[in-house]
Amino acid sequence: MTVTSPTPSNGPDFIPGAKAPETRPSEIGGTAPSPVPETQAIANQHAAPKAVVARAETLSQPAPGGDQLARIEDKCARIEDKYARSEALLSRVEEKIEGATTRMSEAARQSDLAALRSEVRAVADRTRRLPGSGALVLTAIVTAVLTVVLTIAAQRFHLDGLLPPR
């Protein structure tokens, strides 16, 4: 069962189940000739079965636009599913990257802390070897006493003559 395309035998304006447009004599430019009864009877015989055939086909087969729409909807649904899976995968990757970044920053912080600890130990070792306040006071007293003793000795032994004249 096939639907035939409009041909000159059934007219270029043939639509199953539709009426032919009426023309007025004033539009054509005169009076229209009356159709021959035989031609009209033949046209009615050809038109009736074709209208039934076209109606039967539209009932038995889905409309091609509807089928195409269903395929497009299925494809859109598959694309949406792929998009959702990709989005879930990207969120898991993002979480893993954030975790790795946190671990790396902690490791860097730990290595920075280890380096800082070693530097603090080195400075502490150097400062421990420095003399304390008691040693500094004792050194100051010894230096002052020796300066006084040497100055007095230089004056008694007339060592100021060894100095160059002014």
Descriptive labels:
single chain, rod-shaped
Query: Could you report the average pLDDT, rounded to the nearest whole number?
Result: 76
Sheet with the most strands, sense and barrel status: none
C-alpha termini separation: 140 Å
The Rg value, from CA coordinates, equals 57 Å
Helix/sheet category: mainly alpha
Succession of helices and strands:
HHHH
Tally of helical runs: 4
Uncertain spans: 5-9, 25-29, 48-59
Summarize the structure.
This protein is mainly alpha-helical.
Overview of the structural elements:
This protein has 166 residues and is an all-alpha fold. The chain has helices at residues 25-28, 37-60, 64-129, 133-156. It is rod-shaped.
Topology readout:
Blueprint (H helix, E strand, L loop, with lengths): L24 H4 L8 H24 L3 H66 L3 H24 L10
